[in-house]
Protein: Lipid/polyisoprenoid-binding YceI-like domain-containing protein
Amino acid sequence: MKYYVLIILFFGFLKANAQKIYRTEEGHVEMMAMVENLPIKAESHKLALYLDYDSKVVSGVLDLKTLSTNNPEISAMLERQEDPLMLRFTGTVPSVDFLSKRHDPINFNWLIDVTYQGKAFKSQFKATITHIEQGLRMSCLISATGQLLVSNTGLDSIIEGIDDTIEVQFAQMVLKLDNQ
Structure:
């Protein structure tokens, strides 16, 4: 009987915590870089994003092999990589509670921690949180733009002739937490 109660408490705890995190596996991200003096655009709809409603920490994960580009040679270079090319980032949104009430756009400099292939570095993005009404539900659009230094990632060993920086932008709708 004691174990039965512990199991019920454990799953109740998991369910309560699961409701405090927004997640999507289909976020959209775009990247732009110069490769041999030509602009190369890459995008993916496989950006996994997680928002902890309590701490306001946003975490993201992207396998760079899911990027589609306007350059078939670069797409082939990425696909030839045997291991996943996992890029991870995390950063805290500096707003007390942007999902509980209407608000004007919130603009901020967003310091994020980035990890790619075992290398960790910091980057700063320009971010905006825009309130959006959806009938009875509230949501916010989190959008961010910034640069990653290629020297921090080692992508220059995969993509020959890539410039010093990669421009990154993404936008993701985040729904208001129900039953707050």
Residues 2-18 form the longest helix (17 residues). The chain has one domain: 20-175. The beta strands are 21-35, 38-52, 57-63, 68-69, 86-92, 106-116, 119-134, 137-149, 165-175.
